[in-house]
Amino acid sequence: MTARKIIIDTDPGQDDAVAILLALASPAEIDVLGITAVAGNVPLQLTQKNARIVCELAGKTSFPVYAGCDAPLSRKLVTAEHVHGKTGLDGPVLPDPKIPLAEGHAVEFIIDTLRNHESGTITLCPLGPLTNIATAFQKAPDIVEKVQEIVLMGGAYFEVGNITPAAEFNIYVDPEAADIVFKSGVPIVVMPLDVTHKALVTKPRNDAFRALGTKVGVAVAEMTDFFERFDKEKYGSAGAPLHDPCVTAYLIRPELFTGRHINVEIETRSELTLGMTVADWWRVTDRAPNAMFMGDLDADGFFDLLTERLARL
Ligand SMILES: [Ca+2]
Q: 3-state class of 210 per DSSP?
């Protein structure tokens, strides 16, 4: 098996950080060609810096980190400091990054990388709003058919919404971008809240991260400690949901996840339900399937994988 070539498009975020660490800990399965930052959980100035902080924490700095779009396609940026803290990576105390930001724009990197590789060999892994990906598709329509697959965190069906009663944060922040991506024809795998709310860092699971005794293990435990206070208060859940690591875990062990290949469309007009992922889970329309929409995961298997891989960093 050769490692799958991916670009991680991200707005770190503690859960983004864990998703990136999992990818960087798994070079046999995942070849990270670059990381592209987007505005989302916190503004771009912080997400691009946080992405570099995480790479240095992992001790993996052989690929470029680019800054991308600092605002959604046609809306004002909505951020989530109420969840992630002021820096986006609140929790552990981590040093400022020494590696520089790569020169150039994330969108150009995405376009060039797809053009410079054989068709069907690059997977895009968006962990934030879909602004960078949609902008790349708009600027360079020729790259769309070259994408092997998009594996993304976003949306919800049974869990409905976390930023509004109807919408999940990543899709809500830039619904027009999500609409472009979901209509692109690229094979899409979606990790919605329905799955990620089952990836809960319970106390024993967090203790397992801390017990690794490594810089990475302790930092991840401190990140989830911070992150979980929000979800405990809001949902009364047993711990923080690790949304974004579901994406990189899927690349390593897809059998941990089950879902349905269905039609998913994005609400872009209604004020009330803006950014809703209208997922035809029950197949009540004849609209063509465009996404593998996940519904369940083996949570114990997921955390076993995560802990085992984080131990390698
Ligand atoms: Ca994210």
A: helix
Residue type, 183: K
Q: Identify which of 207, 220, 208 has the alpha carbon closest to the alpha carbon of residue 89.
A: 220
pLDDT digits (tens, 9 = 90+) for 276-302: 999 999 999 999 999 999 999 999 999
Q: What is the pLDDT of residues 205-223, one digit of tens each?
A: 999 999 999 999 999 999 9
Q: Does residue 234 have a pLDDT over 90?
A: no
CB-neighbour burial class of residue 96 (10 A; exposed 0-12, middle 13-18, buried 19+): exposed
Report pTM: 0.98
What SS3 state is found at 291? strand
Q: What is the pLDDT of residues 31-44, one digit of tens each?
A: 999 999 999 999 99
Distance 232 CA to ligand 1 centre (A): 19
Give distance in angstroms: CA of 12 to centre of ligand 1.
6
- Rounded to the nearest 10 degrees, how much is the dihedral formed by the CA atoms of 245, 246, 249, 253? 170
Residue 187: pLDDT band (50, 70, 90) is very high
The rounded Å distance from CA 245 to ligand 1 centre is 9
Catalytic residue among 82, 197, 243, 261: 243
Ligand 1 center–CA 76 separation, angstroms: 18
Residue ranges of E strands in the chain: 4-10, 30-37, 65-67, 122-126, 147-153, 188-191, 200-201, 240-241, 257-262, 264-266, 277-279, 291-297
| Other CB atoms within 10 Å distance of the CB of residue 252 | 18
CA atoms within 13 A on the CB side of 279: 29
In the residue annotation, 243 being an active-site residue is answered as: yes
